[in-house]
Write a structure and sequence with these properties.
The complex is a heterodimer. By secondary structure, chain A is low in regular secondary structure. Chain A is built from 2 helices and 2 strands; from the N terminus they run βααβ. Chain A has one domain: Alpha-Beta Plaits. The radius of gyration of chain A is 15 Å and the shape is elongated. The longest helix of chain B has 26 residues. Classes of the chains: A little secondary structure, B alpha+beta. Chains A and B meet through α2 of A and α11 and α16 of B.
Chain lengths: 76, 549
Amino acid sequence: MPPVINREKCTGCGACAEYCAEDIFFGSEKGTIPQVTYPEFCAHCSCCVYACPEEAIGLRIPLPMQLLYKDPEKMV
Amino acid sequence: MKEKRIQTDVLCVGAGIAGLMAGIRAAEKGAKVILAEKGHALHSGRGRGGNDHFWCYIPEVHGQDLDLFMKECLKGPKLKTMQSGTASRVLRTFLAKSFDIVKLWDQWGIPMRYQGRWEFAGHSFPGDVLTHLKYEGRDQKKILIQKACELGAEIVNRVMVFDLLKDKERIIGAVGIDTREDSLVLFESKAVILGTGCLDRLYPPPTPAWMASIPGNLTLTGDGRAMSYRAGADIVSPEMPKRHVGPRYFSRFGQATWIGVLRDPHDHPIGPYVTRPNRVYGDMTPEVKGVYLEELLKAGNGPVYMDCRGISKEDYEYMMHWMWHEGNAPLLDHMKKEGIDIRKHPIEFQTYHIIPEGKIWINEKGETSLPGLYSAGDESMGGISCAATYGWIAGENAADFARDKSFAGGDGAKGEIDARKELIQKVMSRREGPDWKEVNIALQQLMQDYAGVIRSETLLRAGLDSLRRMRKKVDQSMIARNRWELTRCLETLNLLDLGELVFIGADARRETRALHRRTDYPLTDPVMDGKEIFLRKKNGKPVVEVKKA
């Protein structure tokens, strides 16, 4: 579920929680690893991904939102 | 509950493109300005990730005849629908001012020129007038925030304004909540500018079980429209639907940034406009008829693909450059991770959910029908360039309005403030009942089934009855477990009000026009050309009027 925080890299600076417009890190405290309190409300805007100075956040796009495409080379 | 009181000449509600531009101009004109933003200004609103198209009139490019240009622009049904409810003199004022705003943004550091020139592409038919300037908007919000702060405007993040305060003569302030702390925030102001954006959460999203599967923003809940309606302002054409088209299922805006051809599974173009990727025009089919993609799917003739195969190396790089600026970084990252290469892989496209186009009525000064209340941006005029330009215009006029006014004092609105406090306390103190999400899903269900793609008097009236019955229950039982949920509850109450306006407006529009399809009135009524459905709250009840915007 997006976003996924790398707990080894995260320094608890709180940049992700500060900027998230949807406030999905609600209740997180600076200095600790943020909690993704409302993952279903994530808009997949990547602002936390790009705000993180440690590059500790990745987005996992939920299955219902996968991009559908055609691969003509591998078509049955 | 704690109370914070903030006094300011001009209060901007929402720090999106419109709010920021309004704040900048009002501050420049000498007003003390506060921008209240319920999220964070850096990443809020439709312009948060960037934009790459700016509708504007540049005389050296388009010729000296502004009226002709305006007429040419409105040929595309999409642009026309986006501007439904906007008076033509307001549109004209926007176009006349738009080039000034382009030059200002360019000066401030938002690159409006591409390789030193005015580059027009997208949102246009092959061989026809080019309407949209390409610009590098990725950092637009950062730059506008810096500018606003330089001029002394103050941004207050995490405050959701949810109701206006007024005395007998004018708007005197607004009431909000801190979205994180237990605090009511009372604004006393001489003028208020609403810039709260679209209405993205009223209809079921493309994936009904996944609310975040919308191309827009989950927190855009028409707050400005709802609070201005409750305060007695004119709302125009709340019933008119709009439907965007874009990638399936990773819903994103920016269809006009794609350089490709929409094709059926047999590789035949679905529209008549382009047969190979063209960097200037893209494929206009979805702008002529966005629901065409849905119709093809439902008839078993899908899927429909955005096919960029055959794109030149230069055009591919050009498109990727603009995708980044349009705010599609998450989509590009996803494609990279999944090994999807648009040069080889046609991407499925689909028609998205209904977004009502209703607006707060404004005049050419950005004033609403209530003295002291202004509006700009998607809630009164759709699109980024309209938001930028009318934000500026509304900011200027609000500052002028505020100049000779004095603060009204809070006592006149004490009753209104107490009522809001009571509402919050009740929602926060209940232990059992539906939360915001349950209410929101139930509302979306009613909207889709009774005021959706097919409408009729019997459906609309039955739907409105059910909505009102549900509303009574919600008012007595909705719960919030914390401030975050309280924020969503207040948004959902706004959605309930606006849902009601869609039903009433759709019932009053006894014709079929664009995507408003009435089975009992299947024809378009020419008498309604140039007229709109107006809705206003009078003595606690909605009043309908049909007149020119």
